Task: structure prediction
Amino acid sequence: MHEQKIARSYRTELFVALAVYIVLLFGSIRLGRPMPEGLARTLVLVSPMIGFGLMIRSIVRHVARVDEYVRVRLLETIALSAAITGAVSFTYGFLETVGYPKLSMFSVWIVMAASFGLVNCGRALLNR
Result:
């Protein structure tokens, strides 16, 4: 029962933060791109980071609420994902020096999310 309450709180906080992010993202694209360069445009274009900050807050709160076993497993998964992301990023950085196309920094987040999913799947298979 307690775990379900924690999970429900986390999902609610995360989905609200995600909704804020999406609204700000679409608003910043629509309003910020046509604006003249300057501080106002920069602030509008980075405004989705408010939602991203709320997502980080919900994750931190979730980690603080879960028991020690879940916390350790989650943090181990994050550490492995970060290591994989670092390895992939460094490898591709070397490949860029020999002519591979430059990638957007957004691709690092995609690699991190994919690594997190792969590590979770791998751990689930090992724990059967």
In short: The two ends are 24 Å apart (CA to CA). Residues 94 and 100 are 9 Å apart (CA to CA).
